[in-house]
Amino acid sequence: MSKVRKIRCEACGERVPSHEVISCGDAVGGYRDLCGQCFNAEVARLTGHDTFEDFRIEPVRLVDCAGETHEFHFRTRLLGHIVTIDAFELLNGSPSGYQCEIAGDPEDDLLGLLGRLVDKLRRMLSVKHITWENHDPQIAEQTVRGRIQWDDSAAGHTPLLTIDGREVSWEQFSRMLMTFEGWQFRLQIFDPTDEP
Ligand SMILES: [Zn+2]
Description:
Layout: E1 6-8, E2 15-17, E3 22-26, E4 30-34, H1 36-47, E5 60-63, E6 69-78, E7 83-91, E8 94-104, H2 110-125, E9 130-131, E10 138-139, E11 147-149, E12 160-163, E13 166-169, H3 170-177
Antiparallel strand pairs: 1-2, 3-4, 5-6, 6-7, 7-8, 9-10, 11-12, 12-13
The protein binds zinc ion (ZN).
């Protein structure tokens, strides 16, 4: 297992994994690195959500339709009028693989929101959009769901896609599309908290 880089929260002093830390503040007053729970407490204080109840969510393991186990980590963010929970796998200490997010009302029960997120993860894991026979990726049916991400190697000119929790380069994806030469397509973009 790779070593996870830890950063000390400037409010509670706890050392937390770097993916849990939020740098908040502004150029005038300076920035502070806060753990997720201290960040949420600060936002709750500033926005008057006194009843907001935060808790640390332990990692959950889920099995995909191919029988492979995925460990999901969670982050809760109170962002004023909404609260979000995102789920992700970790690779070398950074969020990677399957990622999923949900948004709700800060007054709602956080456990209920978490339950809906886990249901969403299960639906995500229940289908494979790409087959990798002999390392030759092909679109399995006629629908592909995924995430558009930054591709360092392409300097942002073309995206890196994550499909079935796996990285797919734009070049690989465009080659897969050529199986459908002459066919039509529809491309629809969704907010990260929606379900495509
Ligand atoms: Zn803290």
